[in-house]
Write a structure and sequence with these properties.
- It contains 17 helices and 27 strands.
- The strands form seven sheets. A seven-stranded mixed beta sheet has the order 9-8-10-11-18-17-16, sandwiched between helices. Strands 20, 21, 23, 24, 25 and 27 form a six-stranded antiparallel beta sheet that branches. Strands 2-4-5-6-7 form a five-stranded parallel beta sheet.
Length: 613
C-alpha cells in the first residue's frame, strides 16, 4: 500500500473529491508533520550511506484539487480580493449570489460547465494553480532546512502531456501553472511515456505519434523557461505497461528529445522522495536496447559539447499556446495537430505563450499558428492583431478566439475572414459540424473533418475565399489586415491538410524552408531540423514511419554552403554524400539517407579548417 492509498482512508488527509500529488491535503498541519518526518528519515538514510545526492524532484505530475474547508475559505478570500464586490463576481459568473461566504467549490464536470458556464471553474483552477505554487515553495523550504546547508538542485515535473479529456490527469494538466515552474526550481523535468509507435500508417495518425514521442512537452518546458533552465527527461528509457521498444525506436526517442531541448536523458526513474502514489519504474532491459543505450552514451560523451547548448532550435515561426483554452474543461484540449504541422513544415518552430506575446515576443516570428486556441485574453488578442497589422501571418479556424478566458464574447472578431454562427460559441465544432467536406487549392486536396455550419464571409474587398467545397461552403479564406494576412479554414482540418496548407501558406508568403527533402511521403513522416553551431551545424533527420524510408536532401536553402566535413553522431563515423565523399561543398551535392523504421540520423557538418565558406 502506498502512502496515498493509506492516507486516502482518512478524510482529514483526503477530503471528498480531492486529489494530490504532494502526499496529502496541504491545508492540514499534520500533513507537513508527516512529510517532514518522511523526508528527514529518507535524507538521513541516503546521506549516512554516502549517497551522492545532487537533485531532488519536488513533485511529479502535478495534482492539486482540495475540497477542504480551509481551502474553500482561502478560495473565498481570493475571490473577494479579485472582484471586490459580489456584484462584480456575479457579472462574470452569472447568478445572483449575495455574499462571498455562500460560494462553494465549483463542480468540475464537463456537463456542469456547459450548463452553467466555465467562469466559476476558471477561477477555481486559477486559484488552485496559485495554491499549488505556494505549497511547492513551502515544500522546498522545508527540505532546505533539513539539508542544513547542503547544496542540491531542485527539479519538478509539471505534467506528462498537453492533451486531456475529463479524467484526473486532465484536471492535473489544467491545474498546473506551467509559467510559474521556472521560479520554483533549478531544473524542469519532462516525461517520455513510451507507447508503441510502430502502428502508424497514415498522416492522420502522425499527431498522436508525435505526442507519444514526448518532445511536445519538452518544447513546452523550453518555452515556459525561455531557455533559462535545463530540461531533464527523467523517464527517457522507461518502458511502461509492457510496451517493448526496439533499439531504433529508443534511439529515435532519445535523439528527438535531445534535438528539441532535453539536456539529459535519465535511463531509469528513481523516486528518491517519498513518492505518494508511485513505484520505481525500471528501465527497458531488452539486450538490443541496452546495447543502444551504451552506443548513445558513447556518442554523447564524445559529442556532448555539440548537443549540449540551448536553444537548439531557433524558430522563425511560432505556435500559440493558449493556457486559457487549456483550462476550459468543456472540451478536450490538444496541441498535437498544430505542433505536427509546425514541426514538419521544414521551418523551425517555437512555442509562445500569451504572457510572452504581451512582452513583445512575436516580433521575431514571421508567422503564427492559432488553430489550437479557442479562448484568449482580450489584451493578447489585441497584441496579435497589432502583429498582423505590422506584417505578420496567421492561420486560424472558426474556433479560434471564440471567447475570452471566461467564455464571454470577445471583441475584435471582425479580424477574421470567416465568422461562425453565434450559437456555436459554447460548443466545440466537432460535435455539431458536418463531416467529409473537401476542396482543392494550390494543387492540394483540402479535407475538413468538420465544417462550421452557417459561415459568413466578412472583410469586404479585403477577403478572398481561396477554396470552396462542392456545396459552396468556404473551406479556406484569407483576409488582408494592415500589412499582414489572416488565413482561416472553414472548419477543423485533417492533420494532413493542416500540415500541407501551412507549408503552402508559408511558401506563398515567401517564408522559405530550411531545406528540401524528397522521398515517398517524406512530407508527412520525415522530420528534419537544422541546428546552428559555432563551427558548423547539425542536421537531424528522423523517420517516424513504421517502414523504411529513403530520402534525398539537395544543397538548397540553408544547406547551400560549404565546405564542411560530415560526421554521423549516431555512429561516430564519416558520412558520405552521393559522390562518395565526406566533404559537403554546398553546390551540387546531394545526401541520400536510408532510414530504417523509426530510424534517425544526426549529422554534424563541421567547417573545414583553414577554408572559409
Amino acid at each position: 500500500m502506498t502512502y496515498n492509498e493509506f492516507l486516502k482512508q482518512d478524510p482529514k488527509f483526503f477530503p471528498p473529491n480531492s486529489d494530490f500529488s504532494i502526499l496529502a491535503c496541504p491545508e492540514n498541519p499534520e500533513t507537513w508533520v508527516l512529510m517532514r518526518k518522511l523526508y528527514k528519515e529518507c535524507l538521513e538514510d541516503v546521506l549516512s550511506q554516502g549517497g551522492n545526492l545532487n537533485v531532488i524532484e519536488l513533485d511529479n505530475e502535478s495534482m492539486y484539487r482540495s475540497s477542504s474547508e480551509a481551502n474553500i475559505r482561502m478560495f473565498r478570500s481570493y475571490l473577494t480580493k479579485r472582484y471586490g464586490t459580489i456584484e462584480k463576481l456575479n457579472a462574470v459568473w452569472g447568478g445572483n449570489r449575495r455574499t462571498f461566504d455562500s460560494i462553494e467549490a465549483p463542480v468540475m464536470t464537463r456537463a456542469d460547465a456547459r450548463k452553467n458556464g466555465i467562469a466559476p471553474v476558471i477561477d477555481w483552477i486559477k486559484f488552485q494553480q496559485m495554491r499549488y505554487v505556494q505549497v511547492i515553495r513551502q515544500k522546498r523550504r522545508m527540505i532546505e532546512e533539513l539539508l542544513k546547508g547542503r547544496k542540491v538542485l531542485f527539479s519538478i515535473q509539471p505534467f506528462a502531456t498537453l492533451s486531456g479529456g475529463e479524467d484526473r490527469h486532465s484536471y492535473a494538466l489544467r491545474g498546473c501553472d506551467y509559467e510559474a515552474m521556472p521560479e520554483l526550481v533549478d531544473i524542469l523535468s519532462s516525461e517520455r511515456l513510451f507507447t508503441p509507435w510502430r502502428d502508424g500508417a497514415s498522416p492522420e495518425e502522425m499527431p498522436a505519434m508525435i505526442g507519444n514521442a514526448g518532445y511536445l512537452f519538452t518544447e513546452m518546458m523550453r518555452c515556459v523557461s525561455e531557455n533559462r533552465l535545463p530540461v531533464l527527461n527523467t523517464e527517457g528509457a522507461m518502458t511502461k505497461y509492457g510496451s517493448r521498444k526496439t533499439a531504433s525506436e529508443y534511439r529515435l526517442a532519445v535523439w528527438s528529445h535531445i534535438i528539441h531541448g532535453d539536456q539529459a536523458i535519465v535511463p531509469t526513474y528513481w523516486c528518491f522522495f517519498p513518492a505518494p502514489d508511485s513505484v520505481c519504474h525500471p528501465a527497458n532491459n531488452e539486450p538490443d536496447v541496452l546495447a543502444e543505450m551504451t552506443r548513445i552514451g558513447t556518442s554523447l560523451q564524445r559529442y556532448g559539447e555539440l548537443v549540449a547548448p540551448v536553444p537548439r532550435i531557433r524558430g522563425n515561426t511560432a505556435l500559440f499556446v493558449s493556457f486559457e483554452s487549456m483550462r476550459d474543461i468543456r472540451r478536450n484540449f490538444s496541441l498535437e495537430t498544430e505542433f505536427y504541422s509546425g514541426v514538419f513544415s521544414r521551418r523551425p518552430l517555437d512555442l509562445i505563450t500569451g504572457n510572452q506575446i504581451l512582452r513583445g515576443g512575436l516580433k521575431k516570428y514571421r508567422a503564427l499558428l492559432l488553430t489550437g486556441a479557442h479562448l484568449v485574453r482580450e489584451e493578447v488578442f489585441a497584441a496579435i492583431r497589432r502583429y498582423v497589422a505590422e506584417g505578420g501571418i496567421v492561420l486560424a479556424t472558426p474556433e479560434t478566439f471564440l471567447a475570452d478566458e471566461y467564455g464571454k464574447e470577445i471583441s475584435g472578431r471582425e479580424f477574421f475572414p470567416l465568422r461562425s454562427a453565434k450559437p456555436l460559441q459554447n460548443q466545440p465544432l466537432p460535435e455539431i459540424g458536418k463531416t467529409g467536406v473537401s476542396a482543392s487549392w494550390n494543387g492540394l486536396n483540402l479535407s475538413l473533418l468538420f465544417q462550421a455550419p452557417d459561415l459568413s464571409v466578412q472583410g469586404g474587398g479585403q477577403t478572398a475565399v481561396l477554396a470552396r467545397s462542392a456545396g459552396g461552403e468556404p473551406v479556406l479564406a484569407v483576409r488582408s489586415f494592415g500589412k499582414g494576412k489572416v488565413y482561416q479554414f472553414g472548419g477543423i482540418p485533417s492533420a494532413g491538410t493542416s500540415l500541407l496548407t501551412w507549408k503552402a501558406i508559408l511558401e506563398r508568403e515567401k517564408i522559405a524552408p530550411d531545406l528540401e527533402v524528397h522521398g515517398e511521403d517524406a512530407d508527412f513522416f520525415v522530420e528534419t531540423q537544422l541546428v546552428e553551431r559555432e563551427n558548423g551545424f547539425l542536421l537531424y533527420v528522423a523517420n517516424f514511419f513504421r517502414e523504411a524510408k529513403v530520402v534525398t536532401i539537395p544543397a538548397k536553402g540553408k544547406l547551400r554552403r560549404g565546405p564542411y566535413r560530415i560526421t554521423a553522431l549516431t555512429s561516430g563515423k564519416e558520412f558520405h554524400t552521393v559522390k562518395n565523399s565526406p566533404i559537403w561543398n554546398g553546390k551540387e551535392d546531394l545526401l541520400k539517407l536510408s532510414l530504417p523504421p523509426h530510424g534517425v540520423e544526426v549529422l554534424y557538418f563541421e567547417q573545414e579548417k583553414g577554408r572559409k565558406e
